[in-house]
Amino acid sequence: MWKGQALFIDQLTETEQKVYQLMLEYKSNAEIAEMLGYTVPTVRQIVHSIYQKMGINHRANYARLIFLRKVKGVD
């Protein structure tokens, strides 16, 4: 867990936390939708809400952020 992750996770709804965990496992929106029983558009909306709370606007930025935090230890 990276510094500040617990505080960030506390800001997420229960549904957002479930989706976020699957995002950390590199699941696609379609995979997340199937696993949680949602439609893909619903998952997109949830992911968008998570991104807003993280202060990012695109999945590529999310991937970069996770890479830096996991591999390089950047907070």
Uncertain runs: none
Span between N and C termini? 10 Å
Tell me the CATH topology.
Arc Repressor Mutant, subunit A
Structural class by sheet pairing and helices: mainly alpha
What's the pLDDT, averaged over the residues? 81
Q: Which second-level CATH architecture applies?
A: Orthogonal Bundle
Quaternary state reads single chain
Strand tally is: 0
Tally of distinct domains: 1
Q: What is the H/E order?
A: HHHHH
CATH homology group: Winged helix-like DNA-binding domain superfamily/Winged helix DNA-binding domain
Which radius of gyration do the C-alpha atoms yield?
12 Å
Helical content, roughly? over 70%
Number of helices: 5
Q: Approximately how much beta-strand content do the residues carry?
A: under 5%
Q: Quick one: overall form?
A: globular
CATH class: Mainly Alpha
Query: What profile does the largest beta sheet have?
Result: none
